[in-house]
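During the no-cost extension, the postdoctoral fellow (Dr. R.K.) reprocessed legacy sequence entries with the updated structure-token encoder. One reprocessed record is reproduced below for audit purposes.
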Amino acid sequence: MTLNIAGRTIETNYQGFLFNMADWSEDYASEIAERDNLKLYNDHWELIYYFRESHIANMAAPTMHQMVRDLGRKNVRFHEQKAYEQHIYSLFNNDPVHELCKLAGLPMPQPDD
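Re-encoded structure tokens follow.
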């Protein structure tokens, strides 16, 4: 699929995942979110940037468990990891890791074994 975002032509697969991770921008994330009927707020952006930074550091997207463990400890609003996990699911109803990888411009995550 070809997208025109902020004057740039960007190629994605049929699910909206980038072919070239270097094409990522906040404009891309906003456009994909809008297409997926998702309004991005600060909590969404925090998770998107966490995924990008984690991928750069580890060459892989974090799992749900890693995300909850890493960010749940830092989040002053949630004192329990389970509550933070529920919050993430309230932001991304279906599959948070899948959606975050797409919004962060990362490769589509592989299914868990």
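The two ends are 29 Å apart (CA to CA). The chain has five helices and two strands. The remaining legacy entries will be reprocessed before the final report is submitted.
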